[in-house]
Amino acid sequence: METNEKLLVMDKILRELEDAKNTEASVVKKLVHLESKNRGLGDSCLETRLPGIFNLMDDALGATINLQTEYAVVRNQFVKDNKLDEINNRQ
Fold first, then answer.
1. C-alpha angle 49/52/57, rounded to 5°?
2. Which of 10, 16, 32 is nearest to 80 (CA)?
3. 78 and 7 in contact (C-beta within 8 Å)?
4. How many CB atoms lie within 10 A of CB 36?
5. Within 13 Å of residue 68, how many CA atoms lie on the same side as its CB?
6. How far apart are the first and last CA of the chain?
7. Coil, strand or helix: which one is 42?
């Protein structure tokens, strides 16, 4: 695969990680909303299960954010190593 093609794939991966992060953040918000609604309801099933699901999703969100940050560094180093910023700025 040519370096420009690799860069396009890397950029697409970063966009998809951003989408995954946004989706996970939305799920975390929905779980918080459900826990809030259940405070008035007091359903023991929800009280028992929602915190565990929330923790799993919050951990997944944190892992996705970390991966996105780390992969952005990898992508930027790839651009630097292959002088793609210089090439693309000339075009």
1. 125
2. 10
3. yes
4. 9
5. 16
6. 21
7. coil
Contact call for residues 82 and 3 (beta carbons, < 8 A): yes
- Look up the pTM and report it: 0.87
Enter the tokens of residue 23. Answer: 């989706």
User: pLDDT tens string for the chain (91 positions)?
Assistant: 899 999 999 999 999 999 999 999 999 999 999 999 999 999 999 999 999 999 999 999 999 999 999 999 999 999 999 999 876 655 5
Three-state DSSP string of 11-40:
HHHHHHHHHHHHHHHHHHHHHHHHHHHHHH
State how far Cα 24 lies from the chain centre: 7
Q: Which residue is associated with the tokens 């918000």?
A: 29
Q: Find tokens 């989706």 and name the residue.
A: 23
Torsion angle, alpha carbons of 17, 19, 25, 28, to 10:
-100
